[in-house]
Specification:
- It comes from Cryobacterium melibiosiphilum.
- The protein has helices at residues 18-29, 78-88; strands spanning 11-15, 34-36, 39-42, 52-56, 69-72, 91-100, 103-109, 115-120.
- It is an alpha/beta fold.
Length: 129
């Protein structure tokens, strides 16, 4: 039996201004932008990082965003990270703190309105406590 090892190569986003949006996400992730033509690539930062690719919009943004990023931070650091991201230009939408015992998260939007979440997971011995 053949096993497959699939990894995430990059998250691709269309943007009204790829350079500006890439600069925001570079500040979020710590990546160094690599422009090429009208597009910008952000390489992964560290072994658990992820790459991002920004290209010009080819059509109007749909009214409903069908997918979004879930970013994870260490337990106890979500609020400070959310505050940092808001200072960088993210927009706060809502918190989900008591709905699930295994995760708390804040939903934000990047400067072009793309939703993303910043989540933290309590240590196993604190879940459901």
């Amino acid at each position: 039996m053949t096993t497959h090892q699939i990894t995430l190569g990059a998250i691709n986003l269309e943007a009204q201004n790829p350079t500006t949006l890439a600069d925001f996400w570079a500040a979020v992730t710590g990546a160094l932008p690599s422009p090429g033509g009208n597009s910008v690539y952000l390489p992964p930062v560290g072994p658990s990082g992820f790459a991002m690719f920004f290209q010009p919009e080819t059509a109007p943004r749909p009214a409903h965003q069908a997918s979004h990023l879930d970013l994870t931070v260490p337990w106890g650091s979500r609020q400070a990270e959310v505050e940092r991201l808001i200072r960088l230009g993210a927009v706060y939408h809502w918190d989900v703190l008591d709905e699930y015992p295994h995760v708390e998260w804040t939903t934000l939007a990047d400067p072009e309105g793309n939703l993303f979440c910043v989540a933290e997971h309590p240590p196993v011995d604190q879940q459901g406590a």
